[in-house]
Q: What sequence folds into this?
């Protein structure tokens, strides 16, 4: 039997819990979120506490950490003000630009301008989208989940999607090579999604037959 190390989360500090979680739950998709404030000024920031939770309705979730002083970040505040946000999938080609948007610039600095990114107007929501991103999901605020003093969970309903034409076919299958998404690992590490394979799901009869599908 493989030896294990056990961790009682009740005895760990928040930082220790964070290190274990981000090193274990990998790779994590990155939500590159664009919002606008009440005056229409855009803001962009990446979040790796992110995933899609439902297709009917189409719900995505963001985990947005508060600032050290307990105040909300611009993303959370803007979503409360306007009721919308746009999630972009980060491609390998846009990794450095995304990293610029993670810089804690002082208020009033336009991260998107610093990163050299062009914006296009939103179709169904007030927040714009990053033109170069291979996929953008326009979202309306569904609800906030207050889970503690360090982070809030935002649920958004996807109401419109933009995908670069070359990466989606008429059957709505998205080409993973064209998307070329990156994900977060532990620490400062990232992972590409270029190494992938297919493994069909079995029904019970095929399992019992022993004729298991193999990865391809």
A:
């Amino acid at each position: 039997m493989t030896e294990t190390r056990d961790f009682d989360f009740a005895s760990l500090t928040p930082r220790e819990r964070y290190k274990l979680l981000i090193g274990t739950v990998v790779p994590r998709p990155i939500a590159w979120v664009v919002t606008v404030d009440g005056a229409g000024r855009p803001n962009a920031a990446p979040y790796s506490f992110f995933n899609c939770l439902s297709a009917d309705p189409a719900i995505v979730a963001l985990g947005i950490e508060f600032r050290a002083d307990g105040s909300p970040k611009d993303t959370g505040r803007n979503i409360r003000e306007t009721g919308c946000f746009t999630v972009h999938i980060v491609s390998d080609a846009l990794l450095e630009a995304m990293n610029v948007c993670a810089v804690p610039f002082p208020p009033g600095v336009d991260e998107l301008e610093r990163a050299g990114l062009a914006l296009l107007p939103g179709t169904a929501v007030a927040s714009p989208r990053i033109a170069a991103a291979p996929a953008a999901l326009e979202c309306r605020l569904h609800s906030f989940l207050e889970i503690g003093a360090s982070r809030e969970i935002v649920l958004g309903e996807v109401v419109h999607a933009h995908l670069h034409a070359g990466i989606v076919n008429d059957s709505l299958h998205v080409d993973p090579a064209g998307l070329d998404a990156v994900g977060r690992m532990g620490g400062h590490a990232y992972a590409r999604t270029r190494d992938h394979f297919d493994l069909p799901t079995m029904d019970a009869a095929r399992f019992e037959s022993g004729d298991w599908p193999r990865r391809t």
